[in-house]
């Protein structure tokens, strides 16, 4: 564990009663430092996982192009919102799977501006839209 991450964990451990916000910040720290395995371990050991926790973990996997792991969490996530759908769509754009981008976008129960932008970006990236 790199020095700053170790310090963050030490500060977290000193919290007398960490709340969900504290847990989610710590989870985001692991992912920001590209330590998805420690993040997942931390996630599974959290006493309570709220929608923000699930979204943070899914977004972290997606941004690290670990879409199978992101999808596994997404499928069992208790409540999906626009952030959940956007994270998955953006992740598939990043890894180059336009078919999954379209499939997810079509079935997304919530289509935010972020999801639309990710979809548009995917189409541009793969030459399906030419703005010239």
TrEMBL record:
**What InterPro entries does the record point to?**
PPR_At4g14850-like_plant, PPR_rpt, TPR-like_helical_dom_sf
Task: Establish whether keyword Repeat is in the entry.
Answer: yes
> Its domain of life?
Eukaryota
Q: Key word Repeat present in the record?
A: yes
Each PPR repeat, start to end:
81-115
* Pfam families given in the database record: PPR
Q: Which GO terms describe its molecular function?
A: RNA binding
GO terms classed as biological process? RNA modification
UniProtKB keywords: Repeat
- PANTHER family recorded: PENTATRICOPEPTIDE REPEAT-CONTAINING PROTEIN
Protein name (database record): Pentatricopeptide repeat-containing protein
Organism in which the protein naturally occurs: Malus baccata (Siberian crab apple)
């Amino acid at each position: 564990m790199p020095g700053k991450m170790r310090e963050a964990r030490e500060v977290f451990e000193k919290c007398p009663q960490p709340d969900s916000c504290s847990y989610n910040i710590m989870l985001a720290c692991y992912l920001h430092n590209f330590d998805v395995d420690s993040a997942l371990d931390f996630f599974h050991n959290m006493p309570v996982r709220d929608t923000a926790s699930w979204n943070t973990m899914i977004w972290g996997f997606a941004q690290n192009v670990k879409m199978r792991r992101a999808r596994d969490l997404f499928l069992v996530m208790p409540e999906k919102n626009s952030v959940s759908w956007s994270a998955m769509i953006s992740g598939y754009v990043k890894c180059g799977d336009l078919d999954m981008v379209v499939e997810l976008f079509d079935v997304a129960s919530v289509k935010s501006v972020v999801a639309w932008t990710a979809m548009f970006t995917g189409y541009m990236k793969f030459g399906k839209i030419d703005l010239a």
